[in-house]
Amino acid sequence: MNLISSADLSKEEIGEIFKLAEIMNAGKEELMLKEHATLALLFEKPSTRTRVSFEVAAAQLGGTAIYIDMKTTQASRGEELSDTAKVLSSYCDFIAVRIESHDSLLEIANNSKVPVINALTHLEHPTQALADCFTIQECKKSMKKLRIAYIGDIAANTANSLMLTAVKLGAEVSLVGPKETKPNTSYFNKSREYGTVEVYNSVEEGLEDADVVYTDTFVSMGDEEHATERKKLFQPYQLNEKALSYAKADAIVMHCLPAHRGEEITADVIDGVQSVVWQQSKNKLVIEKAILIYLSEKN
User: Fold this and answer.
1) Mean of per-residue pLDDT scores for the chain
2) CATH 3.40.50.1370, the chain: domain bounds
3) Half-sphere exposure in the Cβ direction for 266 (13 Å, CA)
4) Does the predicted model carry a pTM greater than 0.70?
5) 145 pLDDT higher than 70
6) Which H or E element spans position 161?
């Protein structure tokens, strides 16, 4: 079993991962990987939280993580990713991959003998979505009938994974962005098979009665050459005090980081009393530990 897409997990399987995370948070039971288990971190794209949390997760579970910058591998000189996958899976027990192309991730997964984890592609970030929803559940006790408003770049990989995971758990999702942008059709339609997902161009309408307000950078990795026009396009969708006022008074603020204060979010909001951003970030560690345990049990 791999974790390639948020579509891979049923509501029940997400619940199993969350249960493992709760057990580890409570510290009542010590969950460990098999002795000398090894996690390969095959990363093409930069990372802070995902890399460090996976490395710490492996260490705390009794295993070892090996960070592999793809620029230093033979793949940078033309080796087929299928060959890289066959070799790494003969050495390691898991492979976490952070790569631009989702198709490249699938090539690795299709040629690996061990579980492959999507640590971000241009289409998805499923481990982030699990940490996000786990955090929401911690703060709000249940995801059922919650209204989650995602404001900004509604076609981003984080939006794709978040809406698909959240609706499976019973939440409603509002995607709030400019009319020039549309959500990814495949993920939008798939999410609507499980629950309610709506698109809004109006910040006031999109954030009305929201229990959770979520944003991400306006300039994703790979979009840097279009940074100026993207910042201009999304500027009206900045998460600031005025925008937040349209949500419920007890709404929580989320951001997957890195944050750019003064662009997609203001300092007073991300550092304010409604922000759970640091709890959200911390939960990446426990969720990734839970994912490793879960996959080790399923394979």
Assistant:
1) 97
2) 6-124+283-298, 128-280
3) 14
4) yes
5) yes
6) helix 157-168
